[in-house]
Structure formats: C-alpha cells, structure tokens
Serum paraoxonase/arylesterase (Mycena venus), 394 residues
Amino acid sequence: MPSTLVNLFILILAALGGFYQIYIHPLLKIYGVFDGQVQNIGTRDCYKVEELQTCEKAVLHQATGVIYFACSNPHNRAGIFNSPHDAQKRVQTRTELDYLATYDPSTKKVTRLSFTNGFTTEDTSAVHGMDVVPNSSDPKKLWIYLVNHRVPKGDPPLNGLDSVIELFEMEVGSTSLTHIKTFDYPEYIIHPNDVVGSPDGKSFYFTNHVYTRTPQNEIFAYFHSVIVKGRASIGYCHIDKGCKLAATGLPANNGLASTGNGTWYLASTFNGGIRVFEEGNDNDLVLVDTIPTKYGLDNLSIDKNGAVWAAAFPKMFALLKQMTDIDAHAPSAVFRLAANTGADKFYGKKYVLDIPWQENGTLALGSTTFVHDADRKRLITTGIMAPWVTVCNL
Ligand SMILES: *[C@@H]1O[C@H](CO)[C@@H](O)[C@H](O)[C@H]1NC(C)=O
Ligand SMILES: *[C@@H]1O[C@H](CO)[C@@H](O)[C@H](O)[C@H]1NC(C)=O
Ligand SMILES: *[C@@H]1O[C@H](CO)[C@@H](O)[C@H](O)[C@H]1NC(C)=O
Ligand SMILES: CC(=O)N[C@H]1CO[C@H](CO)[C@@H](O)[C@@H]1O
C-alpha cells in the first residue's frame, strides 16, 4: 500500500478511536454495558399488585397514602412511539382503553376511575405523564394533569401522535374525574412526557422528550440530542395565557419534578444526569446545576423530606428490549438525591446521591417510576412496560 493510503487509514482509525473514547464509551458506561449483574438492595419486604399493568407515572397523595396511576395494558403499550400508522392499528385492535386508577396499600384496593363532562380515552393512544395536586385552598379537592397522546389524525397519518395535556378536578376519595380543559398547543406541546401542575389548577410545566412529533426521526433525534445538540425542551402553559417554551436546548428529557418552591429537577434518559433549574422571569426556567449520574434516568418524584427519587436504568439495552418484549426482565434501580447536610457541604458538595433500592428484574420489571411515602415508609414502583406494580415496605 502506498504510504499516503496507510497514513489515511491510520488517521481514520485514530478518528474512530477518538470518537469512541469521547462519545460512545461514556454512553455505554451509562447504559451499564460494562457492569456485572445487578445486586438486590432494599427488596426484603415487597409484593406485587398484578391488577395494575403497564402503569406510567405513579403519584402519591401524601395525606391518605393513596397512589394514583395512569395505566394501560401490554397490547396498548407495545411500541407506543413507533409510528403514527402503528398507533392507528394498535387502537383499532385493542380490547381495553387506557385508564386512571388508584391503589391504597393499607386496604390493598385497586379502584378504576371514570371521567365525566364528555371526556373519554376512546381517541387516546396512550396516557403518559400525570400529576395529582391538592387544591391549595381546599385540600379535599384534587387537580389532575394528564399527558394524553391521542391517535394521530389522517389516513395515512402524517404528523405523529396528536398529544395534548388534560386538566381534571376530583374530590379526594371519589372515583370520578371532571374534565375541565384540553390544552391543545401543537407548537409547544410537541412530544410531551411528564407534567407538573400548580395547586391553583391554572398552569403547569411539562417536558418535551424530543423536538419533533414525527417519529420517523425519533432515533436520530435522540442521538442528535445526546451527542450533538440537545433539542428537547420544557414548556409552560397557563389557562388564560396559553403556552410557551420555558427552557430549550436540553438532551432527551424525561421526568420533571418540583416541590413548588421555585426549584425544578429534570431527568435525562440517554446521557443521565439531573439538571436543576430555578424559575426566572416570565416563567422561564434557568439551568443552575447539573448532577451527573451513573445511569440514564427516567421519571422523578420528590418525597415529603424534599429528596428527589429518580428511576434509573442499570441496563439500558435490557430496558429497550422490554419496550417491545414484555417477557424481557430488565433490572431496575432508583437514585435518591438529597441536600447535603454534612460538614462537607461547605466545600461545595451541595448534594448527596445514593441508590437505596435496586433489583435484578424478578420483582420489578424495568421500573420507570418510583414514589417514596416517607410517612408510611413505603416505596412504590412500576414501569411503562411492567406487568405489575411493586410495593415495598422499607
Ligand atoms: C380551589 O377550588 C375551587 C373550586 O374548584 C376554585 O374555585 C379555587 O380557585 C381553587 N383554589 C385554589 C387556590 O386552587
Ligand atoms: C427548594 O427546596 C430544596 C430542598 O427541598 C432546596 O434545595 C432548594 O434550594 C429550594 N429552592 C429555593 C428556591 O428555595
Ligand atoms: C434475582 O435475585 C433473586 C433473589 O436474590 C434470585 O432468586 C434470582 O435468581 C435473581 N435473578 C437473576 C436473573 O439474577
Ligand atoms: C411521566 C414520564 O416521565 N414518563 C416516562 C417514564 O418512563 C418511560 C420509559 O422510558 C418513558 O417513556 C416515559 O416518558
């Protein structure tokens, strides 16, 4: 071979090696590729609630210990973001609609909720992120905010899922939700994932997973988002003022949480990390901190003590497999992020991060959501493709 060709060959190899070292190796690490088997932590006293399948986003009502779920079934969930055409087909062949339910661990009772005021999930392809917020002036009343991916319109469908955010009101202990408003703003509510509502029933923040509704571009959008430039966003809507984007340029957003004091936490799926935001002018969110995590993250929740619980994927590829194959046993883990109260906080260590619970894929399958009931010492977990809900006494 002429030496210029050899040089060129070496150059290409070196470039590939550099690309691997800088971009690919760190991601494979986050995806748990180099880790051994997942060891169980905190799983001593757990049980399954088999009646609740493929539930997404569990929300704890702290006063009663009741957990609210947005649920479905494996048929409805399989490949929910594959293509608008798939979504239309799935909906035509389903035998059950997506639904909301409550579970009370003290009585072990599952209750399916109904809707009034003309709302149904008949044109829903998937229910997704949800928030349940007590009305600040009347704690017997709850606001429910729900991400509703509606079946795409058109034949053939052109524009991806027709996603909106719904607002409902209900009484604590009642089994029916009164529909109040559909927020339909495709320019801002693009590919919504999680939603966090305000206690006055007037506004909410939500995450957009990617920047486009067109799922044909989704895998590309993810990787562009992780390696080149984040294009996911956080949006804000107000019942009188409409919607806007509150933070942009973010990589593969997932869970969002706040205790309502102006500090917000955002999870990133494909490159991990919890981003911390403060509310700025005009409801914008300003990035103030990024806390790297060992694994990619999913949904977030905050317990009564202010600790953030972040569902994590110790084996990302096992989870991706489970998205289409419910028999795949993806392991689960949860990170707990708490304010550092130790002496070292004066040296800039603002947070402590640990893994209080993880499981090898027997008791919990690919958990995407955790809620911690600090009063009753319970941890509740489920996943978008999990065939049951898992409840653990800690
Ligand atoms: C509480 O609920 C009532 C009735 O729905 C509503 O008029 C009021 O604005 C709510 N207040 C707050 C602060 O959420
Ligand atoms: C909100 O509360 C968290 C702890 O729960 C704290 O770390 C944060 O600094 C608080 N934010 C503001 C703006 O006070
Ligand atoms: C997971 O852990 C349980 C309990 O320790 C054990 O019985 C089971 O064999 C483990 N499964 C795998 C796949 O490692
Ligand atoms: C509400 C929310 O953030 N849901 C996410 C939880 O996990 C699944 C699995 O990755 C995501 O698809 C959801 O978007």
